[in-house]
Amino acid sequence: MDNIINPRIEEYMRGLQARHDDPVLLEMEREGAERNFPIIGRSVGVTIELLARAVAARRVFELGSGFGYSAYWFSRAVGPTAELHLTDSDPNNERRAMRYLARAGLDRPVRFHVGEALASLRETNGMFDVVYCDIDKKSYPDAWRAARERIRPGGLYICDNVLWSGYVVDSSSEEDPHAEWTEPSANTTG
Questions:
Q1: pLDDT value of position 186
Q2: For the residues of 55-66, what is the DSSP string, one character each?
Q3: Is 175 within a domain?
Q4: With the CA atoms of 82, 83, 84 and 88 taken in that order, what torsion angle do they form, in degrees rounded to the nearest 10?
């Protein structure tokens, strides 16, 4: 179940997004492919930028940022005078992210936290317009519990990979037991 969307549709959507062929973005996409490093991809990038702009986001917190691909899109949305908090446990990813974002002219709102994502969120004061979750999937429930009181009314909590390459449609999948669907309890809305 590698592709949950027909590859021809993905190709069509990417063609519509050719205006985003910034050389820095293209280099980040090449690095993701060469290192087999999971990035959200162009369609999701455009989507998170649109979502952040839709709520006039000025403060965004990313739980899991890697080398800054999703930050590229959030930074475009929030602008240089906002706050974009990134997290990753690898200091090499911080250096990569800051180099890429600086070259793209998108580094001004960035505050990078090297360390565990949920601890970094707890250590950062205030409310956020968007909290974006892209950490290890078994920690998603803990991430929601940590973030739900930190999102302003009208703000967004966005999770990547919730369709888990299609494994969510097969709860008997032995590929990954964390992919199975569970009903949210009545008290999980925030």
A1: 41
A2: TT-SEEEEE--T
A3: no
A4: 160
CB 72 within 8 A of CB 103: no
The verdict on residue 2 lying in a domain is no
Q: Count structural domains, the chain.
A: 1
Domain that holds residue 14: 7-157
pLDDT tier at 41, thresholds 50, 70, 90: confident
Q: What is the CATH number of the domain that holds 42?
A: 3.40.50.150
Residue 44: exposed, middle, or buried by beta-carbon count in 10 A (0-12, 13-18, 19+)? middle
What's the token pair of residue 81? 């005078």
pLDDT digits (tens, 9 = 90+) for 126-181: 999 999 999 988 899 999 999 999 999 999 999 987 655 555 555 555 555 544 44
Minimal CA–CA distance to 120: which of 65, 70, 170?
Answer: 65
